[in-house]
Amino acid sequence: MTIRVLICDELPVIGDGLRTLLDAVPDLDVIGTTDNGMEAIVLVRTKRPDVIVTDLSLRTIDGLEMIRRLGKEETRPNIVVFTRSDTDKTVSDVLHAGASCLLGKDASPQELVTAIRAAAAGRTMLAPDIAHRLVTWFREQPDTPESAPHPEVTELTPREREVTQMVARGMSTEEVARELTIGVATVRTHLYRVRTKLGVRDRAQLVSLAYQSGLM
After folding, report:
1. What DSSP line would sit under 41-107, residue for residue?
2. Residues bearing 4-aspartylphosphate (predicted)?
């Protein structure tokens, strides 16, 4: 399957360089480049990319605001953030906005290609140093005797709980469908109902709530 990619970067030289790099990968098809956050939203609506590779510095609106607005679109692409900034606040903002993958601009070409494929499959990928910091932060949190279950979790059907647990373990929509021998559209319907019942916007919030509630 060919993955359609849109590249967003404030510096045209970087955008053009990424296009040259990704055009050489057989399963990737770069459908456009832009340095403008608003134009990127228009391109998403008209060209339907599977994955956006974006910096956070863009014209008109920044990358973070663009990601938030795309989260409200009926059909939204998966997002790979490719940026120089890797502060804790940036990491938190990017993940809460709904990005799938986060890499620093010191990432290798192969790491970027791997992140694009992971995003297209609905998986999450973080730069190794960012992942290490998140694990360190998690380990430093005080232990709690028992997770406080969220009342909404009890409203999930057995199948919805099963799908939620599989997604929280990092499985893509397609992998869940194969594991349960059901259609991808059926998995997406389950996830839509789960998000509605639990009041979460995206996969990242769903995974977080699954662990906080004791569902995992």
Report:
1. HHHHHHH--SEEEE-S--BSS-HHHHHHHHTTSSS--EEEEEES---HHHHHHHHHHT-SEEEETT-
2. 55
